[in-house]
């Protein structure tokens, strides 16, 4: 039996974006949720456009239920075509994955989304012809392979008015000036230079137009192998040590080619082994970290824990939650990635050693590690603008294949891997461990992860800068309103109004204090990031440059031989990582200095806001981090109003530079699902007989102790 609200007989018109076209629709569709053994549904219309799947109800929701954190592009009942993960049909109470042409059409449709929402639609009362059109349309437009130019990204950019103000404050790294400014900011311009050899993509289509290499590397050597085997600069530490990355040569080569490449690498070695460059350590990430296939397999298992159809399924998995979580290996992958980043930090900061990250393409795990290292070591990367500029530099311009890794075109599942999502999970660990160190919140990271699947921004929908450039040039893309221009995801006003954007800013961020003029002279040469470093004495390096006998190891590493060990030195203690890690954690934290995440045991946590936000059974009533944030924002609002009154009493001019905060008047209605969902009715854990527990349990020890877990709550309704 389906309990439904009576449908209101009135036309429901979809809100369409510029360039959005209605493709198919079905009336008398019921969107329902399964709760306490019965289905509660709302009647409405299900539509499919070239941008999204949307459910339109009678819009009878009260203003009181209007979410405070509303996305202006993607509504509560909207699913962008790129956000659809899998579609299942229910035939005679049996669930079946839907792909391609269907001979029989389902009576229920279940859509699993990449942002972990689950939509249940009942088509039992819909006309047969409409069922065929809507089901076939949804499967075709969301699951079948498509051409790049068919993405809604191009339709929107062609039709939308060009009323943006051009460049955002985020550094986009698409000009020579942006790279020169970054070199000056990190004081890396003494040993490194920006090269223009790739203008017109002469050297490689995978490299950006502009990038940074050691000054001694010639442009001819960059051209020789399309940028492979060339150390590319990522960032310079305050002590002069630099983080570099390199694209390795293919592993399968004939002997003559391998010899030629070895001679080439030997020449590169000679140029970067001389002063003023520091000692060099290399790490082949393709052997020292999990493979992309392992990451994809792990995340596929992990996300299944959160794609919950109904409360019964939730409580069925609750009893063995931790064993299921551990079996996915997702948290272990996060821990290994963070540990690798700390190893790199130790080399740069304590050993004053250059680090060269090596990977097949240098556009996947290299991006993860280099970003994490900069977030840990550079406080600018922990501001909102700094973090956004960092993503632009290392990921967007750096050539991460978002189109393939997110499988936006549904062309090959083999290329799909949640590499960028892995980074956001790692950054979240730091944000939740050191909240005052970050200008942005976990809500910011959650919204950023959702934006991966919103195809009106070009940020996450190309594999390289070259691919973007060739698809934006040409007569076909000239628009009536002016030059063709894509939106960038960093313009948050496109998705959120100022009130909602306040949730992206951390009210507890400890802003960097401006140095006192009287003390500036004395502290000028003491770098801010050194204040939180452990005072561990290290032996001076016996020799500048790379050791001669280690040349072959270096070249083998770059040629793709799976040598995952660090090049070690005789004067370096074997347990230096643990000593460095424990020593740092024994000191007080400087939120503008070096940050090392806690990676032992239970310190690595599940990103609850992103993964549990759509599950009512997992909510904390009046609790969670959002409850704390709500109280702080209310307090800030009160302080600001008092400040205004004081200024008025003293007849002082009000500057007006007051950060807007949301008004959270109904704090009693908040739960840990906020701001993505409002308070849901509390779901009570059912009291199950012993026989049912035995059916649910796989572990023998839990079966033997099942009586301990039976909920004997006597006051259940």
Please write out the topology.
Layout: E1 2-4, E2 22-35, E3 38-49, E4 52-56, E5 78-80, E6 84-91, E7 94-97, E8 108-113, E9 118-122, H1 128-143, H2 152-159, H3 176-185, E10 192-195, E11 211-214, H4 219-224, E12 232-236, E13 242-247, H5 255-272, E14 280-284, H6 285-288, H7 292-304, H8 311-318, H9 321-328, H10 330-349, E15 354-359, H11 365-377, H12 384-396, H13 402-405, H14 419-433, H15 442-450, H16 465-472, H17 498-501, H18 517-523, H19 551-558, H20 576-585, H21 608-612, H22 625-649, H23 690-696, H24 700-704
Parallel strand pairs: 1-3, 13-15, 14-15
Antiparallel strand pairs: 2-3, 2-9, 3-4, 4-5, 6-7, 6-8, 8-9, 10-11, 12-13
Helix pairs in contact: 5-19, 7-9, 10-11, 11-12, 11-14, 14-15
